[in-house]
Every structure is written in structure tokens, then in C-alpha cells.
Amino acid sequence: MSRTAQRLIQFDLQPGERLGGKYVVEEFMGGGVEGEVYKVVEKRTRIHRAAKIFYPRGNEHDRAARSYARKLDRLRTCPLIIQYHHAESLEIQGTPVTCLFSDFVDGILLSDFVAAHPGGRLQPFEALHVIYPIVCGIEQIHAAHEYHGDLHEQNIMIRPTGIFFDIKIVDFFDHGRSTGAHRRDDIVDITRMLHEMVGGSRFYARQPAAIKSVCLGLRRDRVYAHFPNATRLRKHLEQLDWLGMF
Question: Which of 86, 137, 141, 184 is the most buried (most CB within 10 A)?
Fold first, then answer.
């Protein structure tokens, strides 16, 4: 588990721990500011699920959990979204919590996928192919007048399939009613993820023009100007000149 993931963990559930009497924890999947996501197995059926446990301090009167479940339901046709099943009230380490159960999707955290590569970074061509399905999924989310709100390498699962990448989001964050600013922030987060995947600031100066045309020096004002929406970013990626790129 990466050090970034460890900083996000509050409950720190271990494999074999019981969850609500019905589930057994198998492994940590990811985390964000709202809670933690674990791979669990249902004791009766042996079916695997993803369980998001909300931090009580950010889920007063169950508002965050209800909003999250409704968002998953509204976005159920988006391939980037894991399908929601049900919610339960549980007690973990003496603390009452709300847990949402969804489909389990096989794969690894994007941060771990990148870390496993030589030098802990992806080559530009591969990084752009990882980012593309994320952009397409976020475009669909925005078209539904929703946003993600917390895009980072610790809440994205990836599974290479042939020459493609199957990408799923394992966590959202609710900043309130969807606004244009929220959607623009999602785009900024995507450019930051690409920047980190290819090595961050240490390697940015030597990146090809294709990478720099998306990251734009991580300048928020330039990202807003060049990519006012996810559709513009998707079209930019689709129109990159590969022959003149490297």
C-alpha cells in the first residue's frame, strides 16, 4: 500500500475483520476525504463487493451517504461508475457509521499501477492512453450535470485489458450542488494526474509537447482557458499529432 493511501486511512480495517456480521474484509481499495473503500466478501454467498465506509464527522444526519448513493444511481449507465447496491448502518470500532455496498471491480489502484513501472512513472504514450478513458467518463458525468469532486490516483482502479485500460472510480466527494466550477476542477485534477503519472515536476521539462499541451504547467488559468469542458479535452486528446509528438 502506498504512503499516500496510508495517510487517508482512519479505520484501517485488516483482512479477516467482520463488517456488520454479513461481510468479511479482504483488502483496502482506496480512500478519500469522505471515507474508505474496502473489498469485502459476503459470508452467505461468497460474492465480492466494494464497501465504502463514511467518516462520521463528514456524514452528519447521513447527508453525505444519501447524496453519494443517489449520485451513483443517477450515473448508473456511465461505464466509469461502479454499480451501487444498498446501504447499511454498522458499528466499527465502537463508532456508528454508514456503509454503502457496490459491485466489486477487479484491478489495482492507479497509484500502485504507476509505481510498479520502471522509475515509478509511465511513458507518455501509455499515460495518455490511461487518461483518455477517464476523460471520456468524466465527460459523461458532466453531461449528467454531476461532477466527481475528488479525482486522484487513490480512488481510481485500473485493469489492463489487451491494448486498452478498464478504468473505474471507487469514490466521489460531495461539495454540494453541481456547478461549472466543480466541473472545471475535475478537469484540473485530470491534468494533475497526468503530470504525476509521467514523473511530476522532476521530469516535466523533458516531456514531449503532447504531455505539456494537456498539463499546461499545472496552471489553473491556462487549463480553464484551453479546456473549458471535458468534451474539449477529449477532442484534444483524439486529435493529437502522434507522428510529431516525440
Answer: 141
